[in-house]
Amino acid sequence: MGADMSMPKGSNTPVPTTALRVELGWRSGPGVPDADASALLLATGKVRSDGDFVFYNQPAHPSGAVRHEGKKPAGAGVTDTLSVDLARVEGAIERIVVAASADGGTFGQVPGLYIEVTDAVSGRPVARFDSPGATVETAFVLGEFYRRQGGWKFRAVGQGYSSGLEGLATDFGITVDEPRHTAPPAPPAPVPPPPSPATAPVALPPPPVPGSVMPPPPPVTPPVTAPPPPVTPPAPQPVRLSKVTLTKAAPSVSLAKQGGTSGAMRVNLNWQMRQQPSGWGGRWGRQQGEVDLDLCALYELADGRKGVVQALGNAFGSLHRPPYIHLDGDDRTGAVASGENLTVNLDHKQDFRRILVFVTIYEGASSFADLHATVTLQPQHGAPIDFSLDECTVPSTVCALALITNTGGDLLVQREARYLVPERGVSPQRTIDRAYGWGMNWTPGRK
Length: 447
Hints:
Oligomer: single chain
CATH class of the largest domain: Mainly Beta
Number of strands: 25
Number of helices: 2
Radius of gyration: 30 Å
């Protein structure tokens, strides 16, 4: 379905299948803000809990009905994709709202914004809506799926918000953990300290009258013990909307400050191949299978042990025993939804001294100059950290991505984006070892 077949605002269309791909897209360029797709699953107009909000920090609904798959370059633009399985939507859910939020600007600065729904199996178009006339809005409800007479329909909505993702989310009942600009509460009135035992007045009984009989002292009443207060279950944690993009000007971030102190942290690498490998400024295009990149990690543990996690030599590591780093597999497509992934167990962060995440070209390209790659670190309990690799201008086959260092119990993530050129006869792994002083012995390996 092309732009000339775009639905008018407010119109609807039947959804003939249940497995769907929902793509938000826009044209990229200088000064164009980033945008993010999200979905809210609604019962009687509101979410039932914060778990009904699917977005970059909470990428999957518990039911499996909606997943946030992520972004990828697409020609002269960018797409952000959700997968929707209407067959898995719980009976209480009446609507699924699909929204976009702008990061670092307004939708008036985002050209060509659209939402397109396709059959996830056949790829056939189901619906498309090109959102018109955006100005100061920082969030948009672009469309919604809703139940009608035992089936599902899709409506083109186009409702804008000037309060961003936070305003949109709270409007549908989400509790958001973001700083608000409110006046601080007044300090409590000072409470005078109790008098010290040395100066406290003591009430004495009156002196006895001669010849009188003193009354017996009153019986001692045992103190009444108040019942313990009822145990209040902990309140659910609000949703964090923040995310971190590392740049040359701001290259590092503390995981603890972003809430990433425990659980698993996924490190994802995805890439695109130039359609014109030797040209500069050409269009990006998916060319699956043409290049094989390997995501790897050098590690040094607190007890001094060193090693590497990589597909070469089947050194995939382990998540629950040293080195507490595991490489998920070997991807050869660069797809955002999969790509190359390794996982770091943050429950063992005290066991790490440093981790260097790097990537090598195994085959299919002579240099990173022909590629565009994005790195995302997603802690289980914290804001995602992402960055793009700078354009490569040297014949590099190995690139240091991020250095994670234990600093007083916290892990500091440093963007490296450092392209290295191996000397003749020197492997990419030995090249990265020398550059960062790891001091390991290397032998040839296969995968």
